[in-house]
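Homework help board

Subject: predicted structure for assignment chain

Our instructor gave us this sequence and asked us to write out the predicted structure in token form, then describe one feature. I got the tokens but I'm not sure how to describe them. Can anyone check?
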Amino acid sequence: MNRRRALRVIGLGGAMAATARPWRGRAAELDEVKIGTPLVISDAPIVIAEQKGFCREQGIRTTVINLVTGSQMVAPLGTGHIDIAAAATSAGLFNSAARGIGLKIVADKGSNLPGYAYVSLLVRKELVDSGKFKTMKDLKGLRCAEPGKGSSTGSTLNQALKSAGLAYDEVTHVYNMGFPEMVTAMQNGAIDVGPVPEPFNTFAREQGFGVRFPADTYYPRQTIAVVLYGNEFMSKRAEVARRFMLAYLKGVRFYNDAIKDGHFAGPKAEELIEMLVKETRYKDPALYRKVVPNGCDPDGRIDRPSLETDLKFYRENKFVDNDTIGVADVVDESYIDAAVKTLGPYKPA
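My token output:
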């Protein structure tokens, strides 16, 4: 067998190209961990953990499976077909917990932190140029796109509306629209507003038909994307789960050393950009210098208050119909606690 391991990308079209990875020893000597992910820029810590050899240091080889949405990951995560999911939070996560599937949020993956609101409101430029949209009060009656009912970005939009004293139902919701489709729909005038992540937010602005309104001005901290562990992974492979978190957290800290002042401009930025160019569909290094990168807590901590805010939004709009399930039922920070204890406090480069 070739001593260079291929990182396999399976599923709905590869945002990450299959590439070879050098490692010490044979694949059979390493514990395989299957990760379902949409393979977006906020997956950088997972890319780093693999590329920098942090997984290999922990005796782990990863198989990355391209799954676009969190809902696509729930079933395979619940049955043990994948061990980990890198997904956005949603009402579906709480509904799955209420059904006893046993998924747990174990670490932050992508957060809208001050200066790093990578998911921000995008407004059709024509509305801004004409003066029809000046403040969040002007959201009333507009056509607002969302990827689905009960998404974390729906809560982002809801906080924008609340900041202007508006209710969630005071806009016209256009559901089940992917982020690339939102950019096209905005260009065609089919929608007016959308909570759009990078790099699509940058694409729309560069093409001249979208204006960004940073989410951290109305929702200063929101955990949007997380690392989820499946029940079988936690119960049957607990030691591997702990080792993976060590590798992941080292990737998170490398990532934090690559961001500065709301950009990929930290000491390790160029090395990270090189990795992202190699591993994602976005091959232009200049793009990474334009986008607003996501925040990610260097200790992997979840912003629990934001999860509480989102859960309240899901309940108010009947996206979650269980009155007893809470944030504590879906979060397990024991893996992060153990990893931080081993690695010590984060020290910026």
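Reply (TA_rk): Your tokens look well-formed. For the description, you could write something like this. Residues 296 and 328 are 20 Å apart (CA to CA). That's the kind of observation they're looking for.
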